[in-house]
Design brief:
Chain lengths: 101, 753
């Protein structure tokens, strides 16, 4: 199951992802993260401390956010990325698209 | 370097030829000179003899009259008769006279000279001509004749009064009984014949002869008008060359010799001279009866240097021309030879460069083919051996194989022709094979794709016979398609014995002949152990010295040898074949590329330690159930949490893929996921949807920028990344995708911990 929260802090949009972002959860998560695609130039931070799992559907959501951010010249930062997810990001080349902290 | 030595060669040759011809010229001119001298001397001698003959006859006639006259001195009037006889008997004596000393006969007066003259009409005129008007005592010849006491020849003179000819007189003293000279008997000798004798028979056409008297008067020369009018000394006075005057002196002194003289124009003449009328030792033809009396004449043969050496110089000139032409020709030939040698050298170095390039090409071509055997040392199910010997440095045969997604994809081919063109097409074909088969597991489609590309632009109509096999390693299903290549040989083992037979193939068309050709595909299932032997016609058409072909019969005979031995190990098969061919050709030159590929497959039956399955509808909302299934399976086989996450990701991607694409939008279908563990953990995902081979999909390009990144393609990438192998098969109208993860690694990992 997946839990998503978005808050604004210091002019940045901070989204927290908790749980397992599998294909079944992807659609809902995509809807939940819609505000990130309306960031209007604010930088985005996605907190992955509690993210256990991510499938390619989840990656697609991240890519959509990243593409939108690039269009309005804002940055997307992933924080608290676990080794397993970091490996997925490395495998898919997504580490090149995000700044990972 | 070369041109310098050739120039030296030409110069040396020129110098040698020059030296040779110069010495030849010198010897030849010396020979000519000697010849001229010889001829001139002979001429002088002949003329001398002729003249001497006449003079001797005169001398003899006069001499013979001396005695009668001396006995008739007492009767002066009888003397005329003797003179008459003397004149009449000798044709050259035109007159004879007896000149007495003053007052010898007192009655005759101071002058007394009875004279008989032969007139032009043949009559004789007798007269006494001595007198004041003919005061012979004053003549030089009187004094000299009287002083001579013997025969004396006067200087020649021109008789203006009588005969109108050149005359010369011979005098003999007449003595009385006391021995005192009382008179001179003189015979006037006509010298009309002298010019004819002298001017006849020249040594050379333009050479001429000259005769002078002892005082240097011209007696005979080519210009008649000069005779007796010119003195040789006057003639030569203007000549600078002092040799001319020396020659005059010599001649006038009665000596013989030779000299080179240059005239006033500087032209060179050779003069050979000798006195006339001096009896030579060997002139026995004429015996002088009156020794010591010589007219003191001298004759010279004058030859022009130009004329003497005309022939030689002409020859030398022609030779020189020939020599120049010869040297030029030689130079040209040497130049050509040097140029050719250079060209040859250039060609040779080009050849060396080309050979080097061919070596490189050969190495590149060899690198295109798998060459480390056994290629899969860790695999139990498959072993391969191959060999290739191109007839030339590079060849048109190819073979290739590799394993992708648990499928062994292999091929063998033969490009029509040999050498570089064939090698280029071979390289293209091999590249196409690799590119196409990377995303295509159906042999007939692989052939179609290669064929279409090769046919597109094939101006030389080069074609390739080609065989592609795709062996599904988990099941032993061999799919193959053939494009006009030789049937491979299949060894099968039913557990008791090995049977070897040609694999049944549709021949289709060779690649590159017709674009758009639909190739047929065939299939055979390999149970137990099987070996496929593939070859190119270089094997069956290997020739011995008698041009006999190795042939299929011999090939099968050799293969059955392996069969009987029960050893169909791929390396053994190839070694046996190679040895059989080598023995057959026994050293004859290989005329075609020869390639063999041998693949052994043995299906691995493994002990299954776990088998579970789950059936899901094509609804992504059931993915959590799948995740639970995977978690359970991983726990059973003892995989760590991180590894579980990865396998889960791979399986989810595969299943979601099927859910999304296998069934048309809106239709329901099941996806069966079976987990089997032996030495691998396998997830076998089966659906009854439309054929879909995810292994044929290209991986996502992970290097693209944000804007360029497509949404799809990540699933297959993750599957390949996290599983050891994936394998797709379409079996009984079902898509069967197998994801394998080796558990041996897990055991190793655990041990390491």
């Amino acid at each position: 199951m997946m839990k998503t929260t978005i808050r604004e802090d210091d002019g940045k949009l901070i989204a927290t992802l908790e749980g397992s972002l599998d294909t079944a959860a992807a659609e809902q998560t995509s809807t939940d993260l819609k505000p990130l695609r309306e960031s209007e130039g604010r930088d985005i931070v996605i907190d992955c401390h509690e993210l256990e799992y991510i499938s390619s559907s989840g990656l697609r959501i991240l890519l959509g956010i990243r593409k939108h951010a690039a269009a309005v010249s804002s940055t997307v930062t992933l924080t608290g990325v676990s080794d397993v997810i970091r490996d997925v990001l490395m495998t898919t080349g997504f580490h090149n698209l995000f700044s990972i902290e | 370097m070369k041109s310098r030595s050739s120039i030296i060669l030409i110069v040396v040759a020129a110098v040698l030829v020059e030296l040779t011809s110069a010495s030849m010229y010198w010897f030849a001119s010396r020979g000519i000179r000697q010849e001229v001298q010889h001829r001139a001397e002979a001429e002088l001698q002949v003329k001398d003899l002729e003249i001497q003959k006449v003079l001797n006859s005169v001398e003899t006639a006069v001499n013979n009259s001396v005695w009668p006259i001396e006995h008739s001195l007492g009767e002066p009037d009888s003397l005329m008769a003797i003179l008459h006889r003397l004149t009449a008997r000798n044709s050259t004596i035109v007159g004879a006279g007896l000149l007495f000393t003053p007052h010898y006969y007192p009655q005759k007066g101071r002058w007394f000279e009875p004279y008989v003259l032969e007139q032009p009409d043949g009559t004789f005129k007798e007269s006494q001509i001595g007198g004041p008007e003919h005061d012979y005592f004053q003549k030089s010849w009187w004094k000299e004749g009287m002083a001579a006491h013997q025969g004396y020849w006067s200087e020649p003179y021109f008789d203006d009064s009588g005969a109108k000819m050149m005359l010369c007189s011979f005098f003999m003293p007449i003595r009385d009984v006391k021995g005192a000279t009382v008179a001179l008997l003189g015979a006037d000798v006509s010298l009309d014949w002298l010019s004819d004798v002298i001017n006849a028979n020249h040594v050379y056409p333009s050479s001429y002869n000259v005769m002078i008297s002892r005082s240097g008067q011209l007696m005979a020369c080519p210009i008649e008008s000069l005779v007796l009018r010119k003195n040789i000394q006057e003639m030569t006075a203007r000549i600078e060359d002092t040799t001319a005057r020396f020659v005059n002196k010599e001649m006038m002194a009665g000596r013989s010799g030779k000299a080179d003289v240059k005239n006033e124009k500087g032209e060179k003449y050779y003069i050979f001279y000798a006195p006339v009328g001096v009896t030579t030792e060997d002139s026995h033809l004429v015996s002088s009866t009156f020794e010591g009396s010589t007219p003191g004449w001298s004759m010279a043969v004058v030859c022009s240097d130009k004329e003497i050496y005309y022939g030689l110089r002409h020859l030398a000139f022609n030779l020189m021309l020939l020599m120049i032409v010869g040297l030029a020709l030689m130079g040209y030939i040497i130049w050509r030879a040097v140029r050719n040698a250079r060209q040859l050298q250039l060609t040779q170095s080009e050849n060396v460069a080309m050979e080097k390039e061919l070596h490189i090409a050969s190495a590149i071509q060899k690198a295109l083919l798998p060459k480390s055997f056994p290629p899969f040392p860790d695999r139990q199910d498959v072993d391969i051996s191959a060999m290739q010997t191109p007839a030339r440095e590079v060849g048109g045969d190819l073979y290739d194989f590799y394993i992708r997604d648990e499928k062994l994809i292999f091929c063998i081919g033969d490009v029509a022709g040999k050498g570089i063109p064939a090698a280029l097409v071979m390289a293209v074909t091999r590249t196409l094979f690799r590119n196409v088969s990377a995303h295509e597991s159906q042999p007939h489609r692989i052939l179609s794709a290669i064929n279409n590309t090769l046919s597109e632009d094939n101006p030389d109509d080069i074609f390739v016979t080609f065989f592609v096999g795709v062996l599904d390693l988990p099941t032993g299903r061999l799919r193959y398609a053939n494009a006009g290549h030789e049937s491979p040989v299949l060894f099968t083992n039913d557990g008791t014995r090995t049977v070897c037979q040609p694999l049944s193939v549709d021949s289709n068309l060779p690649l590159g002949t017709m674009p758009g050709w639909t190739f047929t595909q065939q299939e055979v299932c390999l149970h137990g152990e099987a070996t496929v032997f593939l070859y190119t016609d270089g094997v069956t058409e290997a020739m011995d010295y008698d041009k006999a072909l190795f042939g299929k019969e011999r090939m099968y005979k050799a293969l059955r040898c392996c069969e009987q031995r029960g050893s169909v190990d791929p390396k053994t098969v190839i070694d046996v074949m190679r040895a059989a061919v080598a023995e057959f050709v026994s050293g004859a030159e290989q005329n075609d590329d020869m390639t063999m590929l041998s693949v052994r497959y043995s299906r691995q039956e493994k002990k299954v330690s776990m088998r579970r399955s789950i059936t899901l509808p094509n609804d992504v909302q059931t993915v959590p159930q799948l995740n639970d299934f995977v978690r359970d399976v991983c726990q059973i086989v003892g995989l760590a949490e991180g590894r579980r996450m990865q396998l889960n990701l791979a399986v989810e991607e595969a299943v979601v893929n099927v859910m999304d694409y296998a069934y048309p939008e809106g239709t329901k279908g099941d996806v069966v996921v079976e987990a089997v563990a032996d030495d691998c953990l396998k997830f076998i995902i089966t659906d009854t949807g439309a054929p879909f081979d995810p292994t044929a999909q290209p991986d996502a390009d992970t290097t693209l920028s944000v804007e360029e990144r497509p949404i799809g393609g990540l699933g297959i990438l993750l599957m390949r990344q996290y599983m050891d192998s994936i394998n797709y098969e379409r079996v009984d109208d079902k898509n069967v995708l197998t994801l394998s993860y080796s558990l041996e690694k897990v055991i190793t990992e655990k041990r390491a911990i």
